[in-house]
Amino acid sequence: FTTTLTLSLFGLVTDNLVGFVYCDDRLSKVKISFLDSKGKRQNRVYSVDDLVSRTELPKSFLKLYFPVKNHENGDVYKLVHQIACTIVQRHTASQCIVPAARMSQYGPHFIEPIVNKEKIDDLQKTGDLTKIAHVPIKAALSNQNCSVFYDPLVAQFTNYVMKQGNKQLARGLVEKGFENIKRLQLERYHLAETEEEKAKIELNPRKLLQQAVENCRPLLQLTPIKRGGVRYQVPVPITEKRSYFLAMKWMLEAVREKERTVHFPEKMAWEILDAAANQGKVVKRKHELHRQCEANRAYAHYRWS
């Protein structure tokens, strides 16, 4: 905010201009220049911590106008406070007031787009869709769509497979792995003798990937906490987002640790099928982590201390 903007705002709301306000580039300090009772120019610099509570002003004015707190000259404090109150009352009529800077091009009243058709149907059934019909919505990302073939878990898994931004190669590897899973499951399906055995065989590779990730998700993790000069491995619960990340990360690490003579899609298919059946290296790694957390449960109280 420039000095010209600040002075023009003061000219809009005051008839007698006796003080000036200057804001630095980072808007962390406010300088007030005014005339004292003897007619001498006085300058005061205040930081944000010395100002009145920000809840008294709208969010768009938080970084623009600050009523001064505990000022030496009570008249100057009243003047600046009156100016701030006047701006609040006339903020709809003022044309040159600039909102606080944001890192996003969307305002805080924009909501995230809903691309899943199932969620949209649920909102229609509950009647919540009409409540957000007038609310502006952010633009959907380029990889988000409402197609029946779109799966957010598969898209996230593809991003973890990707290296050096080569997403076309990663998508091809994942699709080739799904094709191998389909072939293996169809072979098992045709070798099954009874209808009950055939009904237990899942042929959809996307559902198998979701089941594999769910079987590999850890519930706890060990966090080092220092107490009395000693570091203790304290078991703490893990967030849902972190658990999904660790499950897919462990699966890819297990795939890449296999023999290099076998192609990646084949190794990925084997690992997903093993994890979907609650077997394999990743499931053992999860159980080992849970055993360590169980062994260190005596240190769990260090989490709050």
UniProtKB/TrEMBL annotation:
Keywords: Mitochondrion, Ribonucleoprotein, Ribosomal protein, Signal, Transit peptide. InterPro entries: Ribosomal_uS7 (IPR000235), Ribosomal_uS7_dom (IPR023798), Ribosomal_uS7_dom_sf (IPR036823). GO terms for cellular component: mitochondrial inner membrane; mitochondrial matrix; ribosomal subunit. It is found in: Mitochondrion. The keyword Hydrolase does not apply. It holds the Pfam family Ribosomal_S7. The keyword Cytoplasm does not apply. Residues 147-297 form the Small ribosomal subunit protein uS7 domain. GO terms for biological process: translation. It comes from the Eukaryota. Residues 1-23 form the signal peptide. Belongs to the universal ribosomal protein uS7 family. This is Small ribosomal subunit protein uS7m. It comes from Anopheles dirus.
